[in-house]
Amino acid sequence: YYQQLIAQDGREAHVRQELASAILRVGRITSAAGSKPEALAAFEQALAAFEELVDEHPESAQYRGDLALAHRSMGVLEGERRRFDKAREHLDQALEIERRLIAEQPGKAECQYDLAETWRALGDVQLQQSLHGAAIESFGKGAELAKQLLQAADPTVAYRRCLSRCDRGLSAAH
Questions:
Q1: C-alpha distances in angstroms, 116 versus 5, 30, 134, 156?
Q2: Which of 25, 71, 83, 158 could serve as 94's disulfide partner, Cβ 3.0–4.6 Å?
Q3: pLDDT of amino acid 152
Q4: Do residues 162 and 113 lie in contact, with contact meaning Cβ atoms separated by under 8 Å?
Q5: Could you tell me which of 5, 57, 47 has the C-alpha nearest to residue 24?
Q6: What are the percentages of helix, strand and coil residues in the chain, rounded to 5?
Q7: Is 20 helix (H, G, I), strand (E, B) or coil?
Q8: b/e map of 10-30 (b: 16 or more CB within 10 Å)?
């Protein structure tokens, strides 16, 4: 369905971004519901669309942030599938993009939150591999960012949940 929409109305960047975001959401919902192959197909489709948008509009922080989220989603799924090299590759790409976004927009809480979530996701993958020292470091970085957000920004449930998940990961890694 989405492929047809992209083919019909995909010339405008904002339309392609909305469609890619919708495909990414479908992938996340599908993954949570248990259909990993279908989720993987959706994530690959969204990732390709975001990569194309970033290639065409490298100045767009929104498109780069979307690309990082797609990489994080792929990394989480690949970790669940125990394909750790692929998981790490995607999570490393997300970290790289998110670090650049923070350097460009140092006070933007959304960028810091995204980076915290990616550190947490990386910690989860490392913990699955029994890389306890690396997991402790990743969860610690995620927790530190989440604490900073809770102190500096409007505390949201998402920031608290991120901190809680990092703290649980730290406990499990010790």
A1: 33, 24, 15, 14
A2: 71
A3: 82
A4: yes
A5: 47
A6: 85, 0, 15
A7: helix
A8: beeeeebbebbbebbebbbeb
Burial class (CB in 10 A: 0-12, 13-18, 19+), 157: exposed
Helices (H) and strands (E) in the chain, counts: 8, 0
Global pTM? 0.89
Q: Report helix, strand or coil for 105.
A: coil
Q: Place 10 in a pLDDT band, splitting at 50, 70 and 90.
A: low
Instruction: Find the largest Cα–Cα distance for the chain.
Output: 52
Q: How far is CA 79 from CA 63, 74, 98, in A?
A: 24, 8, 20
**Contacts of 80-88 spanning 24+ positions with Cβ under 8 A:** 80/31, 80/36, 81/36, 81/40, 82/128, 84/125, 84/128, 84/129, 87/125, 88/122, 88/125
- Six-digit token string for 65: 């942030």
CB 100 within 8 A of CB 84: no
